[in-house]
Amino acid sequence: MPIYSALRSLWHVFKHTFRRPITVQYPEERPRIPPRWRGRIILSRDPAGGERCVACYLCSAACPVGCIALQAAEDEHGRRYPAFFRINFSRCIFCGYCEEACPTRAIQLTPDFEMCEYDRQNLVYEKEDLLISGPGKYPDYDFYRVAGVAVGVKDKGAGERELPPVDVRSLLP
Amino acid sequence: MTEPWRSLVVIVGVLAIALLVIMAQVWLERRIIARWQDRRGPNRVGPFGLLQLIADVIKLFTKEDWTPPFADRPVFVLAPAVVMTAGMMSFAVIPFAPTIGIVDLNIGLLFFLAMSSMGVYSVVLGGWASNSKYSLLGGMRAAAQMLSYEVFMGLSLAGVVALAGSFSLRDIVEAQRHGWFIVPQALGFVVFLIAGIAETHRLPFDLPEAESELVAGYHTEYSSMKFGMFFVGEYVGIALVSAMITTLFLGGWLGPWLPPLAWFGIKTFFFMCFFYLMRGSLPRPRYDQLMAYGWKLMLPLAMLNLLVTGAFLAAR
Questions:
Q1: What average pLDDT does the segment B137-148 reach?
Q2: Residues 6+ apart with CB under 8 A from A136
Q3: Is residue B68 classed as helix, strand or coil in its secondary structure?
Q4: Chain B: closest CA distance from residue A119 (Å)
Q5: Residues of B in contact with A23 (CB under 8 A)
Q6: Complex ipTM value
C-alpha cells in the first residue's frame, strides 16, 4: 500500500474534526434562497391590480410535461383573460420555461419550495390558488403600457404614456 | 460479598457495559464520520441523536426475519451467533482494571487468538450456507483474508509475550509499569493494528463485504436480527481489538492521576476513533494487493520484529 498517501489521507480527514459542518439544519435554520430560484409558480397582477395573464397559451405550449391547463375568455372590453388556469404541480418539473415564454410576465416562479402534500390531488392548483395580489418580481411592468390596446377611440399605442407597437416579426432590436 | 456473587456481578456488568459500548459505537461512528465529512450525522432522535441507536435496534427487531429457501438452514441460523459469541467470549480475558476482569487465564492471549479464529467460521459458514454467489465469494475472501492475517497477528504478539514473559494479559499489563510496549515493540504494534483491522474486516480491509463489488458479501442474504448479529459482531470486533491494543501495547489500565478504569476507557476510545478514521479516509485495496501485503510485507515484518526482540532479550 502506498503508505505515505494513506497517512496523508488520514491526516487530511482528521483535520476536518476542527471544521464547522456545512449542514443547514433545515426546519430550524433556513437556507438563503436566491430570488431567481425556480420554485412554486404564481400568477401576478399588473401595478394597477388587473390580471396580467392574457390567456395566450404560450406557457401551456412551452411546458415540456404539459402540466398547465387554461381556458381563454374575453371580457366586455375585448380583453382576454383565463377563465380557468390550472397547474398540476405533481407533474411540474420547475424548469421555468413557462416564465420565459410568458409575454406579459404574468406567470412567475418564486423561491417557495415547501409545497408537500399527503394527497396527490392537492397538488393541482387552481387559478385562485395561483393568483397573487401583487406584481411579483417585476413591480413596474405593465404589458399594455408597452404594447397598448385599441379601445375604439384610439389606436394601439396611440394613447398617453404609451409606446408605439413593436414589430414582433422583426429581429432588429 | 462472597466470591461467586462477586464474579456474577462482574460478568453481568462486563457484558452489559460491553453491549452498551457496542451499541453506542454505532451512534459514535456515525457522528464522528459525519464530522469528518463536514456533516452533522444523526442528531434528531433524542439529545444529540443518542436515541438513534434505540430506534435502529427497534427497526432491526421488527424487520422480517427471512431465511431464503435455498439456504442451508441450520448453518445459516448458527453462523451469525458464532461471531457475536466468539467476540463476547474474548472480553472474558481482558483486564479492565487491577480488580475488574472476569477471568485471569494464564493463557489469556492464546484464548483471544483462538476466539478471533472462531470468528472466521461465522463469516465463512454464513457465506457458504447462504448458497448465493455473492455470499460465497465474500465468505471465500473472508476465509483467505482472515487466515493469512491471523498468521502474523499471532507472530506480532510474540514479541510482547517474550518481553513480558507471560501469556496472561494481567501480567503483560503489569510488565509495562516502567514503559509501554509500544516503544520497544513499535513494529509489532503497527503489524498487530493492521492485522486487527483485517481480522475485524473493517475498512479498508472490508473485502468480504465490499459493497461496490459483492452487494454485501457474506451477509447479503441475511435480514433482521441475524444481520444485526453480524453487525454487532463487527462492532464487538472493533471494541475488542481496541481493548487488546490498549492492553498489549499501551499499558492497559496504567496511567497517572485518573482511576485505572478511566485510563483503560480513554485508550480504548482513542483506538476506536482510529478505526472510524480509517473508515472515513482510506480506499479498499484490491484483493491480490491485500494478499500480497499480508504475505510479502506484514509476515516478514512480524518475523523481523520477533527476531530482533529475541536477539535483544538473548543479549541482555
A1: 84
A2: A42, A44, A105, A108, A110
A3: coil
A4: 26
A5: 38-40
A6: 0.75
